[in-house]
Amino acid sequence: MPRSGQGIHLAMATPDGIVGSISVYNADPQTGTAEVGYGVHPEHRGRGYATEALRGLAGHLLGTGVLNKIRLRARPDNIASLRVAEKAGFVKEGVEPGAEVDEDGVHDLVVFGLVREDARP
């Protein structure tokens, strides 16, 4: 991970083209933690692309010792994103009240985490 903490952004691709993206950001080299985020184009959702990408990226970063823990945050009403986190083995740690502000107002975020010991190879 770069020391700047800016992170990396990767495409989710199939033989038909790019279907989404996954990012690692807010890296903290002192604690060995970072946050992940992902998105899949609406016409490609429900096919497991985000789960596969999240499992693969988390497994690599935690399995190679690059990171000790990966965090993930999603809105409580984003059921698809919550399911991806759970299917990828992330553990729900709680809710951050008012953690996100956008044009719709203030929103809570569900927090998930995955530590090296719990990561799939």
Automatic annotation (TrEMBL):
Location of the N-acetyltransferase domain: 1-117
Any one cellular-component term (Gene Ontology): cytoplasm
Signal peptide: none
Protein name from the UniProt record: GCN5-related N-acetyltransferase
GO molecular function: protein N-terminal-serine acetyltransferase activity; protein-N-terminal-alanine acetyltransferase activity
Source superkingdom: Bacteria
Keywords from the UniProt entry: Transferase
CDD domains: NAT_SF
SUPFAM superfamilies found in the cross-reference section: Acyl-CoA N-acyltransferases (Nat)
Organism: Thermobispora bispora (strain ATCC 19993 / DSM 43833 / CBS 139.67 / JCM 10125 / KCTC 9307 / NBRC 14880 / R51)
